[in-house]
Amino acid sequence: MTTTHVALPPGAENISRGGFNLFAGPFWRLPDQGGTGRFALLVEQKHMNSSGSLHGGVLMTFADIAMSQTSRAASGARTCTTVSLTCDFTGPGKLGDVIVAEVRVTRQTRTMLFLSAELVCGARKLGVATGLWKIFEQ
Amino acid sequence: MTTPPAGFTRTELIDPFEIHVGPVFERGAKGARRFAFVVDERHINMRGVVHGGMLMTFADAALGQAAWDVCDHASCVTMTMQMQFLAPAKLGDLVEVTPVLTRRTRALMFFRGDFTVGEETIFSVSSVWKILGVD
Fold first, then answer.
1. How many angstroms separate the CA atoms of A21 and A69, rounded?
2. Of A19, A24, A56, the CB nearest to B60
3. Which residues make beta-bridge pairs with A121?
4. Which CATH number belongs to the domain containing residue A51 in this structure?
5. How far apart are CA A1 and CA B49, in angstroms?
6. What average pLDDT does this structure show over B78-82?
7. How far from A79 is each of A23, A65, A73, A76, B129, CA to CA, in Å?
8. In the prediction, which pLDDT does A60 show?
């Protein structure tokens, strides 16, 4: 875990406390940069597919966690649930990659949030996600 | 957890992440396989229901297996997935899907899947797969 920390951007905070979030993670929150929710994932052997690339399920899980966290932060709600999510896989992730999710709120209503996210490793674009979240508990 | 539900056998998984979250179970013939997993403690979120990430990972695994049947184990990758979360699944629930091939071209496969717990559809997916090395 110490070596994991070294590879991550400064200020990374572990947000994986239990359940699937921890089992599939850990996932990290990065310091906010101008209204963008930023999160990180270090790709380990368990995250891979048999072709030597990051498994699509990991990238979608990471997008869902980053976007759900951003929904809660933006709305102040205790619980937001994912209603729909679309993910385009634009490039393969590799073992040891530090993948960063940059999440933006497109629009927020009283009960819903529209979000988009880019998943990148340096200059490489690994995925783009858009989705809809419902505010459950204020 | 590792015992297949009645009528199912274990799917042979080769992706490290699928082995990590599995097992996955199946029944039926190649090209018409039905897939399933049982929600356990590893798969849930802080509210005690299945994490969306697990449903999406299972979807990628099940539709990927179905894609493999269609393209005879050629290398293929997920290009895009669209998902709708309709209802929660709880600890111990059996989540099932029979992926449906909507269309196949030379290089692409279009799939959809409705995921059920009992009679209820809880999750719906459509996805596009690319067969590598084919224009």
1. 12
2. A56
3. A124
4. 3.10.129.10
5. 28
6. 97
7. 20, 12, 10, 9, 33
8. 98
CA A11 to chain centre: 16
Cα torsion B20, A79, A117, B113 to 10°: value is: 60
Determine the Cα–Cα distance for residues A42 and B90; give it in Å rounded to an integer.
29
Residue the block writes with tokens 């920390």? A5
In a domain, B111, yes or no: yes
| pLDDT tens digits along B95-117 | 999 999 999 999 999 999 999 99
State the pTM of this model.
0.95
The number of CA neighbours under 13 Å toward the Cβ of A61 is 35
Do B79 and A21 lie within an 8 Å CB cutoff? no
Residue B4, domain member (yes or no): no
Q: A133: which DSSP letter?
A: E
What are the chain A neighbours of B43 within 8 Å (beta carbons)? Answer: 19-20, 23
pLDDT score, position B1: 54
Q: In angstroms, rounded to a whole number, what is the distance separating the alpha carbons of residues B83 and A20? A: 18
- Count of structural domains, chain A: 1
pLDDT of residue A1: 46
- Cβ within 8 Å, pair A82-B47: no
Residue A9, pLDDT > 90, answer: no
Range of the domain at A102: 2-137
Q: Quick check: A56 and B81 CB within 8 A? A: yes
Domain that holds residue B113: 9-131
Domain CATH for B85: 3.10.129.10
Mean of the per-residue pLDDT values of chain A: 92
Domain count, chain B: 1
Angle of CA points A107, A113, A118, to nearest 5°: 80
What ipTM did this prediction achieve?
0.96
The tokens of A40 are what? 């990180």
